[in-house]
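Field reference: sequence -> structure
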Amino acid sequence: MHPSSTYLRRAAVGYLIAGLGFLAFGFPFWFLNAIDTSPKGQFTPPFFFVVDDPVAALANNWIQLVSAIGLAAGAYSLWQAGDPTGFGKKQSLLFVPMAGGISYILATWVILPFAPLGAFLNGLGMILVGIASLKANVWTGWKRYVPLSVGLFPFVFMFPFVILTGARPAAMIGFWGVAWIALGLAAWQRAQESSTVQLV
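Structure field:
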């Protein structure tokens, strides 16, 4: 198996896990009438909000933690594969969503500023990667549009709600999982295509 195929499959698994994690997060809000509540914690200067019980936070948010690890691993694996940006300068754009995934990991225990920072960096990063993808034409067909769609999602469907209401749109955050799953499927299909090319 060609190394790029291996990295692409790792990216696919990471993004599929992340997407399922987002869907699991949204499920209670869609079907169980869950209410988004503020976690117990305290502000620490200058702008950190730290949870009171780190062990309980891990137990309650382990799905989100696994999802965040999937995001970071997915971006890192795409960087290794040189997809969908190609190798070189544009490849470094994947460091932005990587930082977003790491921010989400830290948000398990330090919600502010890392939770909103994670959403912003993942969104911005995938917009940058998506634009590079369109220019590089490494991914073809429907796949080349997926990274940009992933990046645009929070700016179109999540951040406006935060600005208008001052609260996070928990139900809408869950729907971001659909976009991440699409990215995972795109990476998996690209891995299949890459393997086929190497065998020919």
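Note: The two ends are 12 Å apart (CA to CA).
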